[in-house]
Amino acid sequence: MEKRSKDGIDPTAGECMTRNRRTISPHEFTATALAVMEEKKITSLVEVDGACKVEGIVHLHDLWGTEMM
Hints:
The chain is of the alpha+beta class. It is built from three helices and three strands, in the order H-E-H-E-E-H. The protein has helices spanning 13-16, 30-40, 60-64; strands spanning 23-24, 44-48, 54-59.
């Protein structure tokens, strides 16, 4: 984060975000979401419909309450 922020202490969201968002369909299984997160080494996926309209966000912590973890 030091490389991305001006003072290394208080970066903006834009300085920390991934520019190429990772998405998933709301019809995908949680196992698929987990596999994508593990493969890409990320903790969140944006859920989009067929028209790329944002429907929600799946976070790794959301999966903790399932039988996946």
